[in-house]
Specification:
Layout: H1 2-9, H2 12-54, H3 57-62, E1 80-82, E2 88-90, H4 109-125, E3 129-130, E4 136-138, H5 139-146, H6 151-156, E5 159-161, E6 172-175, H7 180-189, E7 199-209, E8 221-230, H8 235-252, E9 257-263, H9 270-281, H10 290-298, H11 312-317, H12 327-342, E10 347-349, E11 361-369, E12 375-381, H13 385-388, E13 396-402, H14 403-412, E14 425-429, H15 434-449, E15 454-456, H16 463-472, E16 477-481, H17 483-488, E17 490-495, H18 503-506, E18 507-511, H19 515-521
Parallel strand pairs: 3-7, 9-10, 14-15, 14-16
Antiparallel strand pairs: 1-2, 4-6, 5-6, 7-8, 8-13, 9-11, 11-12, 12-13, 16-17, 17-18
Bound molecules: histidyl-adenosine monophosphate.
Histidyl-adenosine monophosphate binds near residues 228, 379 and 398.
């Protein structure tokens, strides 16, 4: 405005004033540009620091999610992936694994393989045979057996309608939340009742899906080792099942395991007990937690399982089912205890173990670690389950042991699984021409075909980098192929384990055809 004024008025004072305005305008412009530039640079630095910090383990530890179950990554790779080319990129949040679902990464696998090996060993020892059932079943199978009023069926199942069939009917399907219903269905469907009874089956590393709130010890996809014995109600089988489970943890090297057992009666004595329990709770109901007020109507036995502090005194004073068992249930439970003594399982009777699934009768049990009260497993007898599915009366008993929780406990007790097998040989080549690489590929292929675990470096790295990789891989020997080796048709074998020996004694030259024999002899 002043500049325009200057051109019209033309007096000196105003010209001076207008030149000040011009200077101010320039200063403002340059200062503004400087600030914008500075902010831009600060943002770039922050962006760079963010990338850098996500690579630092400590920083990743801080950004770990709250779930403490073994996840494979233990949060290390959160939002940070390494592309095939070695370049680091960031993955969008959208494509992260779902909440409560975990990748089981290679470094976690030794724990899983150890649990698997021990489970198979113990299941075989006790005469159980492996069964695998589909991950997807009709929703009705779980709803009828587990119970319409249970948390699993009411709140936790992953259910959806299947695509319509030719007639336009859709079946409602559910991702398996537990293993017993499918096992009993398979037993009936395949006529296993015609075999010698009991039929003893186990399942292992089977994924189970429950839409629970992820927290310490609780995920939405978990895995179980489970055993089921169908077709005989002998109390010695109850003791066998608990004994097997106790051996499973013992063979894993776990200590401080507590075994809690109870009997929740059967269709003969439990209904009367439930009436007695309801009579006790009726006048106290308004003081109970919201969940218990619902349980009172739907599943009163579960009121004994409530964890709310306000209900603990009422639970302690409540009538316990052990005092109301009918004679056959009492005898059964007494026999289970006698046989458990024979198996030398140190059990404790806990009258508050009622289990969260409807199908249980008589013996129920849970194991926990000494350290916390999180159930490592849960199981019990389910003598009426086959009838619910339309089968004949078929007594059954089983357990499901959570693998994630078992591994969590192993880590807590510092039980380390055997290390993964390291390569015996790592082939290193010096020289960038195709002949060297081909000689290396040939050597590694021959070693593998001969059953020797062998590795080589890819990407034409320097000899130093290849040697570093050989050491990092934990290889026992580096098989070196350089110019003199290629010309002379031999290889140099460097003993990577011979720490402290002189270079001479660490390395030997071997004719190409003797490589396998030399490595096998060690
Ligand atoms: P359950 O008590 O619901 O029983 O589950 C068995 C075990 O699976 C639990 O003790 C726990 O170790 C593990 N588990 C359950 N839910 C989760 C979760 N959200 N996250 C991590 N681990 C979990 C059953 O499933 C019965 N079918 C057991 C059975 C077999 N009864 C008779 N035969």
């Amino acid at each position: 405005m002043y500049i325009a004024c200057n051109s019209i008025v033309g007096n000196r004072e105003e010209t001076c004033y207008n030149s000040h305005a011009l200077v101010r305008l320039f200063v403002t412009y340059f200062f503004g540009a400087f600030i914008v530039n500075l902010v831009y640079r600060i943002l770039r630095v922050l962006q760079w620091m963010q990338k850098l910090f996500l690579r630092i383990p400590l920083f990743n530890e801080l950004s770990k999610d709250t779930n403490t179950l073994p996840s494979g990554s233990d949060g290390k790779y959160k939002s940070n992936i390494i592309t095939g080319g070695g370049e680091r990129t960031f993955m969008t949040e959208q494509f992260k694994a779902l909440q409560g679902f975990k990748d089981i990464l290679p470094e976690e696998q030794p724990y899983w393989r150890m649990v698997e090996r021990v489970a198979i060993e113990v299941a075989n020892l006790y005469g159980y045979r492996r069964l695998e059932t589909p991950i997807l079943e009709e929703t009705a199978l779980f709803a009828r057996t587990t119970g319409e009023g249970t948390d699993i069926v009411e709140k936790e199942m992953y259910s959806f309608d299947d695509r319509a069939d030719k007639e336009g009917h859709r079946t409602n399907l559910t991702l398996r939340p537990e293993g017993t219903a499918g096992t009993v269905r398979a037993y009936l469907e395949h006529g296993m009742f015609q075999l010698a009874q009991p039929v003893k089956l186990y399942y292992l590393n089977e994924p189970m899906f429950r839409h629970e709130k992820p927290q310490a010890g609780r995920v939405r996809e978990h895995h179980q080792f489970g055993c089921e014995a169908l077709g005989d109600g002998d109390p010695a089988i109850d003791a066998e099942m608990i004994g097997l489970l106790y051996d499973f943890y013992a063979h894993l090297g776990l200590k401080h395991i507590r075994v809690f057992i109870n009997s929740i009666g059967d269709g003969n004595c439990r209904p009367q007990y439930i009436e007695i329990l309801k009579d006790y709770y009726r006048p106290l109901l308004s003081e109970c937690c919201q969940d218990c007020q619902v349980r009172f109507h739907k599943n009163p036995l579960r009121m004994l399982d409530c964890k709310e502090p306000q209900d603990q005194a009422k639970i302690a004073a409540a009538p316990k089912i052990g005092d109301y068992l009918c004679e056959p249930c009492r005898e059964h439970f007494a026999a289970v205890q006698r046989f458990l003594n024979v198996y030398e399982v140190p059990y404790e009777i806990d009258p508050l173990i009622v289990r969260g699934l409807d199908y249980y009768t008589r013996t129920v049990f849970e194991f926990t670690s000494d350290i916390d009260k999180l159930a490592l497993n849960g199981g019990g007898r389910y003598d009426g389950l086959a009838e619910i599915l339309g089968g004949a009366h078929t007594p059954g008993i089983g357990f499901g042991a959570g693998i994630e929780r078992t591994i969590q406990e192993m880590k807590r007790q510092k039980i380390t699984p055997p290390e993964e097998e390291r390569p015996l040989a790592f082939v290193v080549y010096f020289g960038k021409t195709p002949e060297y690489k081909e000689a290396a590929v040939r050597a590694v292929a021959e070693l593998r075909h001969a059953g020797i675990k062998a590795e080589m470096a890819y990407g034409d790295r320097s000899a130093k980098s290849q040697m570093k990789q050989a050491n990092n891989a934990g290889a026992a020997y580096a098989v070196l192929i350089g110019e003199k080796e290629l010309d002379g048709d031999f290889v140099t074998i460097k003993d990577l384990r011979a720490e402290g020996l002189g270079t001479e004694s660490k390395q030997v030259e071997v004719r190409r055809e003797e490589l396998m024999g030399h490595l096998k002899r060690g």
